[in-house]
C-alpha cells in the first residue's frame, strides 16, 4: 500500500505530530510505502492567487478555468505539481489535523484550494440526461481511500447529537463528503480524539494502540457509505435525493449516507 500523509500542525511535539510519526513508523514497519507532506515544515503557501497559474492566469482571475488551463498546460507551480503527483501515486491518504473553529486549519484548506485544481480534482465527465459530470463516487481520484485523524479540545459529549458543538459527523461532512468524496475518494470512518489538551501520557498509550490498529486494518475497513451521484439515488439535474430513499427519521447530512450494508 502506498500512503500519503498530510499533516497540519505547527508544533512538532504536539499530539498530532506524535500520531503522524506513529503513522509513518507503523506503516513502514508493515512494509508499506509512505510519503509525508508536513505543511508547516514545508512552509506551505496557503493562499491561492494568480501566481499559481503563471501566464495561464486571466486578467480578471477565474480560479476554476485558470487553474484547469494551467493544469492542462503543465504551468502550475512546482509545489502544487509535487502534491498532485503524490496524490496520484498514493492508494491511501491520511490527514492529521486539529479541529480549529469547527474545521481544518487554514494551511490545510489552502492545500486543498491550490492542489485540487479544475480538471485535476473536479470539472470532469459529461453532462447529459443521466449524468451530471463525474463527481461524488466517480472522478479523477476514484479508487483511492482517505481517512481523517482529528483532535478536538472539547470532550466527546460536546460533539454528539445533543452536544452544543453539533455531531462530529456533521462537522466533518464538508471535508469527508464535499472535499474527498467529491473527486471520487472513498472515505473511511474518522479517528477522532476528544479532550486532546487534557490527555495524559498513560491515556496516550491506549490511543496509540487504537490508532495502530486502525492503520493496520485500513485495507479491510468499510468506507462511509456515501450515496453515489449518478447511480439512481438523485434526480438529475436537480441533484435532490429521490423521495422514499431516506431511512425513517433521518434528516440533514445523514440523508446522503446509505443504510449500512
What keyword list fits this structure?
single chain, 6 helices, alpha/beta
Helix vs. strand class: alpha/beta
Q: H/E order of the elements? A: EHEHHEHEHEEH
- Mean pLDDT across residues: 94
* CA-atom Rg in angstroms: 19 Å
* Strand coverage percent: 5-15%
- Largest sheet geometry: 6 strands, parallel
What assembly state would you assign to the polypeptide chains in this entry? single chain
| Uncertain runs | none
- Compute the number of strand runs: 6
Number of helices: 6
Span of the ends, CA to CA: 25 Å
User: Helix share of residues?
Assistant: 25-40%
Shape: globular
Secondary structure layout plus pairing:
Blueprint: E1 2-7, H1 15-29, E2 33-38, H2 63-73, H3 78-89, E3 92-98, H4 106-115, E4 145-151, H5 168-181, E5 186-187, E6 191-193, H6 201-216
Parallel strand pairs: 1-2, 1-3, 3-4, 4-5, 4-6
